[in-house]
Design a protein that fits this description.
- This protein has one domain: Aminopeptidase (3-Layer(aba) Sandwich), CATH 3.40.630.190.
- Helix content is 39%, strand content 19%.
- The protein has 10 helices and 12 strands.
- A hairpin with a 4-residue loop joins β2 and β3.
- The longest helix has 25 residues.
Length: 363
Amino acid sequence: MASNGNGKKRKKRNKKVTVLIVLLVILAVLIAAAAFILTRSKPEPDTPIDFNREVEDEGDETVGADTPTIDQGAVNVDLEQTDEESGPTQDEGWKHYLLLGVDGETDSYTAKRSDAMIVLSVNEDEGRVVLSSVPRDTLVYIEGRNSFDKLTHAYAYGGADLTVQTFEENFDIDIANYFTVNFAAMEEIVDLIGGVTITLTDAEARHMGEYYAAWGLSGGTQVLNGKEALAYCRIRKIDSDYRRNDRQFAVLMAIYDEVKDLSVGQYTELITTVYDHMYTDMTVAGAISLVGDLLSVTENGEIENVKLVDSEHSSTGSLNGRSVVLVDNLEETAIRWRQALGIEDYTPSARLTQISEALEALK
């Protein structure tokens, strides 16, 4: 039977699709989870919400005396729900997923925080995948606690469910599903692929040894093992939480460079490693549907990096002597983010307006 000439083209496209899926798996390992490529899922264990739980800020950076201070008493405010019943805005053509990275066992939430948070947005019709990072210390309103607090603390109070609710109310983003992963998975992935090539500054190399016991490194381009790559992703004290997000993305791209030529067997091992460290509220049917979306979303495997909260539109404040990120204006943030996604016809929800005005009153 004569060939129609499409075999090689189809094989090449399938290879690109496979690389895209693997890239999303590795991304999830770095800063969340990758259940969307799986045909099975695990339910998150019951997580009791405890708004009186003490959340330690161990390791958070302190701030100087000249940093604008938020009065502790002022952050406690009861914002009653608005009459609006529609919930967060649903962006036509887009599906949004919340990816959460935690330090510790994924089935134990007591006093655990989500140290990495990112929104994964998929638009099948436009062939786009967008990652939107948010600094963990961003000051947001946490309903039930009736106060403004660090975004990372929502996970400690009520796990992924409360974190999703907090995202939806403060950024007006309809979250379809969440994925939570333990950062330990990243070490295993990096070691599995033989390390990643990263260029370190002298300050970064020194900090990785002093704070994360990743000794023996110096400035320059080199191959990092799993422990070293995780230490690199955690660096924040020498500059900022914004730069830490940049480092996480740099490691993602470095892993992408390494996985392009892996075998199917190695892909399977990567996926299995992720799954062992992951929890999600996505059903099997939902996972299969998302696989279908991703298979048709792009030919070149490109992923856009958009900061939901960036240094240009936020500032550093002080709450209880600890650093917090103060968004200039929550409503404008939601508008600006949607413009980056190409969504022009957007009106902030009544709940977002309410929270945004309350945050402005704190400054």
